[in-house]
Amino acid sequence: MSPDRARAWLTGLGLPGEDPAVPATSTGRFADGGQYKWEVAGALDAPSTARLHDLLAAGGVRLHQVTNTVGTMRYLDAEVTDLVAVARERGIQLRMAVGPRGLHDVGGQKLASSAVAAASAYRLRGADHLAQGLEDVAHAVDLGVRGFLVFDEGLLLVLHRLRAAGELPADLRLKASSNMGAANPAHALLLAEAGADSVNLQRDLDVRMVAAVRAATSVPLDLHTDNPRQTGGFLRGYDVPELVRVGAPVYLKSGNAAQDFAETAPTERELAAVARQILLDDQVLRRLLPEAVASDQPEF
């Protein structure tokens, strides 16, 4: 089969047949007309979220979204409600990871040394595990959480269907984790159709690849502007303006390189470094794409 025929099949399915040589400017926007939001992910609790908000506000940048990657399973209820309250008071969108995950389970997948085993270690194992993940979401909803980071495609589909059926709140927001491995237009579209309201793409996609994904789906894309060493150590500051231009609407996930991703909240030194990285990225964005508009209206 020739590449031309394969590309024709893809375009016939409404997908881009190739990564564009000259990425088009995206016309997609958040509900308020903005193109981007700043997001920080990590073990952010109520005090560290408040502190990070204040550090960024002093530099003239708004913290739009916080994603707690530890999840409700590893917090006392009072800690979750405190985090919900801090986020609400400051107009920050809050997402929390769903637990349990395979990394916490008794199965041996996470212990295998191969990259193939590690890639699937976050998935839920068995029907009981799926039910536990669903219960974790339902409990977090009772505590006031409305945004979730989902690691398993099956759980994503179940949550989407329960939301559509009215069993879960209609304003529930579901983010597909980068651990799902989305790196092409068809995969991103699949996750969107399974219920993802935003999709984390793989961290190493170039601007042309991001543009191809944008051509396939209208959901917001989560794009890492920097990464800790264990996921590549990339610093993509000069890519930020182009990522906004071709990928909008986008969540710019910044400050990862400044953190040690553990289950303890970032230290004051780490928070200062996270804020500095966002200010650096914001500086490049304002200089090279001054017409870019932030989305300052929380959506949930």
Describe this structure in words.
With 300 residues, the chain is α/β, with parallel strands linked by helices. The chain has one domain (35-104, 113-288): TIM Barrel (Alpha-Beta Barrel), CATH 3.20.20. The chain has ten helices and eight strands. It has helices at 3-12, 46-58, 77-89, 115-119, 126-142, 153-164, 185-193, 207-216, 240-247, 268-288, and strands at 36-42, 65-68, 93-97, 147-150, 173-176, 198-200, 221-224, 250-253. The chain has an eight-stranded parallel β-barrel, surrounded by four helices. The longest helix is centred in the last third of the chain and has 21 residues, at 268-288. It is globular. It starts with a helix and ends in a 12-residue tail after the last helix. The model has no long low-confidence stretch (mean pLDDT 93).
Tell me, briefly, the overall form: globular
Separation, N- and C-terminal Cα atoms: 47 Å
Q: How many individual domains?
A: 1
Q: Strand tally, please?
A: 8
> How would you state the average pLDDT, rounded?
93
* CATH topology annotation: TIM Barrel
Task: Please describe the structure with a list of short key phrases separated by commas or semicolons.
300 residues; alpha/beta; TIM Barrel; eight-stranded parallel β-barrel; globular
Write the layout of secondary structure elements.
Layout: H1 3-12, E1 36-42, H2 46-58, E2 65-68, H3 77-89, E3 93-97, H4 115-119, H5 126-142, E4 147-150, H6 153-164, E5 173-176, H7 185-193, E6 198-200, H8 207-216, E7 221-224, H9 240-247, E8 250-253, H10 268-288
Parallel strand pairs: 1-2, 1-8, 2-3, 3-4, 4-5, 5-6, 6-7, 7-8
Helix pairs in contact: 2-3, 2-10, 7-8, 8-9
